[in-house]
Every structure is written in structure tokens, then in C-alpha cells.
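Data card: per-record layout.
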Amino acid sequence: MKKKIRVDLKKRSYDILVCYDEFDKLGKAVKQLKIGTDAVIITNPLIKKLFGKKVEKCLLAAGFNVRIETVPDTEKAKSEKHCIRVLNNISKLDSSSRRIFIVALGGGVVGDLAGFVASIYRRGIPYVQVPTTLLAQVDSAIGGKVAIDLGMGKNLAGAFYQPRLVFSDVSLLKTLPKKDLISGLAEVVKYGIIKSPLLFTTLVKNYKKVLKRDKKILQYIVYACSLIKARVVEKDEFDNKNLRVILNLGHTIGHAIETAGHYSASYSHGQAIALGTLSASLISKKLGLLSQKDYLRIRGLIKNIGLPTSLKGLDVRAIFSAQEHDKKFIHGRNRFVLPVKIGKTIVREGIPKSLIKDSISSLLWI
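The structure for this 366-residue chain is written out next.
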């Protein structure tokens, strides 16, 4: 059964549709938006092979012209090179008789790149998110943060640009490699920590069902996380009220780990966020804000899911340096989201450098 969440942002409002095996309804849902005549699907080779024909068919059936643009299946797709290439290809397709819109078909990398391209081409054209990974369905496809990476860090060139629709068909997760399913669970853990003890406890009790791709529990997780993010985004769309920042739990050190690893296969985004969440939890515990019991609950869930609890192959100094280029710095002061209990976080600025270094170093032997 399809469930709908309305993200209320006035003129920029849109729906998140959470369903199971209802992919044939995508064309009709997009048609109702009246956003254009020509769909440019941005995806990667693997997703194109798995779902490209299916998406193309349902969009053609709805009366759209369709073109597919492919980008690499790695974080490297979010580079200036690929961004400019896609923009040039879209410009060659464009004409006065066409009304182009973009369909982001893929995980977080595709969604970030496609959304950023949509935000800057002709100063903004509509786009639709069709997330194909757990991480994208519960987090990155929602909220309008779009970006590409620069040499000095992740997501440094970006914008706030809302999609016109997020179409999350949970059945697409059946083909998701187990390591990517586990990676996506890092964001689910994050949502439990920041807003929902019930979600956290449900994951503790049912993580084995999740790993077996149980239909009911997966739909619950995607819907619960989507609802949490939608409500946070509604209150702080542009991340300037100190409310949306809670969604960055684990991301300050997590992004630094990705940057220090040059976005290699060593640590996926979800693995890096899990380690970043542990780092933030350690900082919070050492500051006396988080109990040992809750710290062990967080670490235990991360470990049981199959996410890493230790850091290997990266230099602490490189991670710390990358962290100092993080865009969440305010007036030269670092800013961390710290858990104080399951379901509640605080934002703390000016964390001592020695404590940050210790929290990263401690991951080397935990």
C-alpha cells in the first residue's frame, strides 16, 4: 500500500511516496506534476541495467520524451568534470519546443549530482528523485540539499533545491547488494538517535529482518525516517535556524573520513557516517553528556548491523585536517551534533581540538 508524506514548504512543497512494487505508477505520478515534456534520466550503468528500461517505459507510456545520461557508479561522479559533461549534453538536447526536467535514478551520489545539475541549468529546472538505495530513500533524496565535491572536501559546491517528487519504491531494495543495505542503515541509526527511541528500539529488535529484506519492516523504516526528515526540513529548509543541523549527526567526522580516503572504496558513505556517529558519541561521553549505557547501545547496534566500529588504513592527521575544512564551521568555530540520549541531541560549538583528535584516534583500537 502506498503511503504519502507531504513536505510542506509552501510554493516548494512536494510529496514523498513510499510504496512496494508499484513502480508502474511512476509515470502517472510525474504526469500529474505538469513539470515538462522531456525527461532526462541521470543514473549509473548498473542502475540503468537493472531499472533503466523499466523507468523509460513508464515515462514513455505517460507521454514523455526520454533520454538517459549515465555517470560513474562512485563518489567520483560528483565531480566538476561529470557535472559539466552532463550540463553540456542537456544543453545539446534543449530547444524552444522542449520543457526539460530531470529524473534522478539511483542512490545518494546520483541524487546529489542530478539535483545540483537541475539547480543550475537555466537557473533551475524541475527534478524528481527516484532513490534506489536504502540510504537515498531514508535520507539523501529528501530535503533538497544537492551538491558536488571539490578537491578540498565533500559537498562544497551545492545548493538548496527541492525536488518536485520523491518516489521511494522499497521493492527496488531487493537487488541492492548487502553491503549497500548495511551502509544505508547508518542513516537509519542516526534518525533513531536524533528523534525516535521507537525507531532505534525497533531496529535493535528487528535488524536481522532488515538484513533479510523483510517487506514490512523495510517499509516501516523508510516511512519513519522520511517522516522525521520531512518534519525537520519543514522547520528549517535552508539550515539557518539551528534545527536542521541535527541531521548532520556523524557527518562532520564521517565526511572527513571520506575526504581523507579520497572517496575510495575503503569506506562507503554509510560506513564513514557510522564511524562519525561513534566519534560524536565518544566526544559526548567524554564531555559527560551521554551515559555509558546509551553509548554502548549505540555502539552495539552499529556493530550488530555489520557497520564498522574501528578505523583502519587512514591517517588521523588527514582526517582531522579534512574535518577543519568542513562547511559546518561557523565563524571559524567547529560545530558538532552530539547525542545526549537515544532520541535527543544537542549542537555544541568549539569542541577542543584535542578531544576531536582523541575521538578519531580512539576509533583505531575500539
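Known properties of this structure: Residues 4 and 17 are 5 Å apart (CA to CA). The longest strand covers residues 153-160.

See the next section for split statistics.
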